[in-house]
Specification:
Elements lengths: L39 E3 L2 H14 L1 H5 L2 E6 L4 E4 L5 H4 L5 E12 L2 E8 L12 H11 L12 E4 L6 E4 L26
Antiparallel strand pairs: 1-3, 2-3, 2-4, 4-5, 6-7
Length: about 190
């Protein structure tokens, strides 16, 4: 990340900044990306309400499924349709977290129903939750208090493939080597 001018650890206490580690053909620059558009920045309760109401007017089905989200380096929540690539939602920038998020209407307004860090483009660690909670709190969205669907990503030290650890089985799905207990997906980003 130093080549992009950003330290591996952010100064505001939100932890690590994650760079895109997914397939190069999905990179939004130079004609890549999915063409689904950039994520919508949501900084206030009013911005979120306008964003949600716009979707509710189009179709209830759109609000029934989770959305793609990222939290940018400045702490801003960005939202995009579920089938959007996280790197597209982030406009190719570094993020503090990424994943999927679902909303529901309650008596008091909107709230977060589900939220997870499943992003194979950024592979954020579960320790990225504080950035998510700060962004949601800033917008005024009640939330579960932790990832409801936590994904654990590890890179295999033997074959180099990225793995999604399931049921605490820290073995590479490609070569069966042991996977480290600590996040190691992007060696450049490690402090």
């Amino acid at each position: 990340m130093a080549e992009r001018g950003v330290a591996a650890e952010t100064a505001d206490g939100f932890g690590r900044a994650y760079r895109y580690v997914g397939p190069p053909e999905l990179w939004p620059g130079d004609g890549g990306g999915t063409g689904t558009g950039r994520g919508q920045p949501v900084r206030t309760a009013g911005e979120f309400a306008a964003w949600a109401e716009e979707r509710a007017e189009r179709t209830a089905a759109e609000l029934a499924e989770p959305f793609t989200f990222v939290v940018g380096l400045g702490g801003t929540l960005r939202l995009a349709p579920r089938r959007s690539e996280h790197v597209d939602c982030a406009s190719g920038e570094l993020v503090l977290s990424a994943g999927e998020i679902g909303f529901r209407r309650s008596r008091d307004g909107w709230e977060v129903e589900t939220v997870g860090n499943h992003s194979t483009g950024y592979c954020p660690d579960t320790t990225s939750w504080p950035a998510v909670t700060a962004a949601l709190t800033l917008v005024g969205l009640p939330h579960p208090g932790a990832f409801t669907h936590a994904a654990v990503f590890r890179r295999c030290p033997r074959c180099g493939n990225c793995n999604l650890v399931r049921e605490e089985h820290y073995a590479c799905a490609f070569c069966d080597a042991d996977l480290p207990e600590h996040w190691n997906v992007d060696e450049v980003a490690l402090p």
